[in-house]
Design goal:
Length: 791
């Protein structure tokens, strides 16, 4: 009801304000004052001007334009150096992931107006829960590497500081709609009352995106809604924001699978029927849209074909869905005390609840701890179809305080933050195909097979200072102390074999405390468009939840540490600009998968003593004419594990063989990522050509080309036209947009997984292992058109 009210109220409130002339007219000074106070709010987590770090800034105009595409934010971020983004459904919406310099989502710190957005246990940001956030933002700053001190989880790949859009000081409203391939559409609206009584602003927004998805069974709906109330004084602002998110997204995390023995499942047919004989041939032929979470292979007299999962009553399983609802409450005060001092304080509370329903086709009973059960014919039941529901609740609340001082020589920022997290994990069996088993365990309702609770406290204090040594030279120092305590208990969703045919849950009894000191220092030079810098930084990071739970009975994992060294140079003038950044990220005890499995069958993530990422990031641009600009960036890197022992499966996990590597490439870490742009702009018309190239990605840490994703190149083309119109029906402006994605219809996979085993008796020695790969493919050519009306 609240979402509907905000959406409907936008044009109503705006038209009342306009027609009734109730409010005094706002001037540019009001907008500048509000913009300045918003800068005070985010200053604690943003890098100071001339700070010695690799930074990319995304402006409001880019964010607002990108919002109309319906894609999730990582796809916009991937236009900056060294970032890779992909979505499970292949069209850029819903379940979306990203990496910075090869580091995954749990190693990327994300804040909104200084408030941490990473889930405290998983340490990830789930972008499916942040659909259309681009429309709510005024600026984004991406710091690659450790960056400056921030709130929340440690940055091991980068930091993303989201800054909410400043409320419009003039009455305004807009509505927008987009439609495109695979029945993907987006609708939304926003409004602002402008300044009421020269102090108050009420604003709100609602947006949602729907899609059928490229991959079968990935139909989804997700969106966000926002309501804000701001009070602006001469030197201070008090602002309350409610940001809500919802999503019901079809899942495809298994990807599209194929093996080097059995080349099936890519399009529901076998290699013998298609004439495809090798994995490489199959990749070139197209990755298909098959989804094992949605359908399975049927073997009958007609050959091999796919069929949707079917329930015992003959009805079809709809699809595996992830469902999540989240509400952020943020109350912030920004006070510009005088010309030198400023402070900000925020209280925040987030409630989240979600679950996913998954059909488990022909699953072992032991996966759910069930044993010694016979069917109607008296046979011991080993397998049947299940539907499981796994979910969680999350409550996170905290406080943040920053204070800054600035004069001709000093730029100092200090900050404190505390955050408490309370969570619960639960799992139920909601359906069983076998009638006898269904009566036994579902007779009194859904069967709960695990339940655990978690608490996590995160306290943080930092002080960072930039000292202007001369007009050209700056010194930077930053010191942060962070205390983390994590506790979880109950029973997990993994089961141990008691040895007598029965099973017992993995018990959780984790109570760990961490104290981290994260220093940073650097020097920078700037004069006449030239800028150069060098810095060194240390970051520490506690293990994620799955580093504990997936390791079964193994000892508690260690915290990770990163030593990050950066050096860069840039030059810009009115006609052209260049930039180069060198980095060396030296990891101690980084978590990587070794190939081994725990005694409960989970892939082990183990601390590796020595690993590193090193590379060079380049950017360049020029204004060829007043109406044409060219831009480009490149990230070239080496990402290595030193002294690595792989535990290779033998005879499909009956045994393990240790294979040593002295200098192997880290998985999911492409050595080359390139972006090129041509931007034509004349009056209200703009056309942008964007080509992206990503080199080969290895799917494990053995640097084996057979178990990798080939490199790919994809080109997108977008058009927009902004028209200022005479006021008719209150319309002030119209924006038309048209986006063409993957215009050359390339077939490629953006991510995936691999399983391999040495099976010598079947002709699969170590140099030609049996393997199965799950691909996460992207759609071919797609298009999206949009229209925005501004009031």
């Amino acid at each position: 009801m609240k979402k509907t009210f905000l959406f409907l109220a936008a044009p109503i409130v705006a038209s009342m304000v306009h027609a009734g002339n109730l409010l005094p007219a706002a001037d540019d000074n009001d907008s500048l004052r509000l913009e300045h106070l918003q800068e005070v709010v985010v200053r604690g987590v943003n890098a100071q001007k001339n700070a010695p770090f690799a930074v990319a800034n995304i402006k409001k105009t880019e964010l607002q334009s990108f919002a109309k595409t319906g894609k999730e934010l990582p796809f916009l971020f991937s236009q900056t150096p060294g970032i890779l983004a992909w979505s499970e459904n292949g069209v850029g919406t819903g379940t979306t992931y990203m990496r910075i310099r090869g580091a995954g989502g749990s190693r990327i710190n994300v804040t909104l107006d200084g408030v941490p957005l990473n889930s405290p246990e998983d340490q990830c940001v789930f972008w499916a829960n942040m659909n259309s956030y681009a429309s709510l933002l005024g600026k984004v700053q991406i710091q690659r590497g450790v960056g400056t001190s921030t709130n929340g989880d440690g940055a091991f790949g980068g930091t993303i500081a989201l800054s909410s859009k400043t409320p419009d000081s003039k009455p305004s409203a807009e509505v927008s709609a987009s439609y495109g391939s695979y029945n993907t559409y987006r609708v939304g609206g926003a409004f602002s009352t402008g300044l009421l009584w020269n102090h108050l602003i009420l604003d709100g927004a609602y947006h949602e995106t729907n899609t059928d998805g490229y991959i079968h069974g990935t139909q989804g709906r997700s969106g966000s809604y926002y309501g804000g109330l701001s009070y602006a004084g001469d030197r201070f602002a008090l602002r309350y924001k409610l940001i809500g998110n919802f999503e019901r997204t079809g899942q495809a995390w298994n990807g599209v699978t194929a093996g080097n023995d059995d080349l099936s499942l890519m399009d529901g047919t076998y290699g013998e029927k298609t004439g495809i004989k090798t994995y490489k041939d199959l990749y070139k032929a197209g990755l298909g849209r098959y989804n094992s979470l949605y359908e399975h292979l049927i073997f009958d007299d007609n050959g091999y074909h796919t069929e949707r999962h079917r329930m015992a009553d003959g009805s079809l399983w709809k699809k595996t869905t992830d469902n999540f609802w989240q509400h952020h409450h943020i109350l912030s005060l920004a006070w510009d005390i005088n010309e030198r001092w400023a402070t900000t304080a925020s209280l925040h509370y987030t409630h989240g609840y979600g679950y996913y329903d998954e059909f488990r086709y022909n699953n072992k009973l032991s996966k759910f701890g069930l044993a010694n059960i016979t069917d109607a014919q008296g046979n011991t039941l080993k397998r049947t179809d299940f539907v499981r529901k796994k979910g969680l609740t999350q409550d996170t609340y905290g406080a943040i305080w920053n204070i800054s001082y600035k004069n001709k020589r000093w730029d100092i920022i200090g900050g404190l933050s505390v955050q408490q997290f309370d969570g619960n994990h639960f799992g139920y069996i909601t359906y069983v195909k076998d009638e006898t088993l269904r009566r036994n365990i579902l007779g009194n309702g859904d069967y709960q097979y695990y339940d655990s609770d978690a608490k996590k406290f995160d306290g943080n204090a930092f002080l960072k200072a930039l000292y202007h040594l001369t007009d050209e030279w700056d010194l930077f120092a930053d010191a942060q102390y962070r205390h983390v305590s994590y506790k979880t208990d109950g029973v997990n969703d993994k089961f141990y074999d008691n040895g007598d045919g029965t099973y017992v849950n993995q018990r959780l009894d984790i109570n760990e405390k961490y104290n981290f000191f994260n220093p940073k220092a650097g020097i920078s030079f700037h004069k006449n468009g030239h800028q150069a810098y060098a810095s060194a930084a240390i970051s520490n990071r506690e293990p994620e939840r799955n580093n504990f739970t997936d390791n079964g009975a193994y000892p508690a994992p260690k915290a990770e540490r990163l030593f990050d060294y950066e050096a860069g140079y840039s030059y810009s003038n009115r006609e052209w600009r260049i930039g180069v950044n060198l980095y060396y990220m030296d990891y101690k005890d980084q978590f990587v998968q070794t190939g081994q499995q725990s005694d409960i069958g989970e892939n082990l993530t183990t601390n590796i003593k020595r690993s590193y990422r090193m590379g060079i990031e380049l950017s360049a641009g020029c204004n060829v004419t007043p109406w044409l600009s060219l831009e480009g960036n490149a990230a070239l890197s080496q990402n290595k594990v030193k002294d690595f022992d792989e535990y290779a499966s033998v005879n499909w996990d009956d045994d393990w063989r240790v294979i040593h590597y002295d200098n192997s490439t880290l998985a999911f870490s492409p050595s080359t990522i390139l972006n090129g742009f041509a931007n034509f702009h004349y009056r209200g018309f703009q056309a942008v050509w964007h080509t992206n190239f990503v080199s080969r990605q290895y799917l494990d840490n053995t640097e084996n080309k057979d178990r990798s994703l080939p490199g790919y190149s994809v080109t997108n083309l977008s058009f927009s036209y902004t028209a200022q119109v005479r006021k008719a029906m209150g319309v002030k402006g119209v924006v038309l947009g048209l986006d063409f994605n993957n215009i050359f219809a390339r077939r490629y996979a953006t991510s995936g997984w691999v399983y391999s085993s040495i099976v010598e008796e079947y002709g699969h020695p170590n140099d030609n292992r049996y393997y199965q790969i799950g691909f996460i493919p992207a759609a071919g050519f797609t298009a999206m058109g949009s229209i925005t009306l501004k009031f």
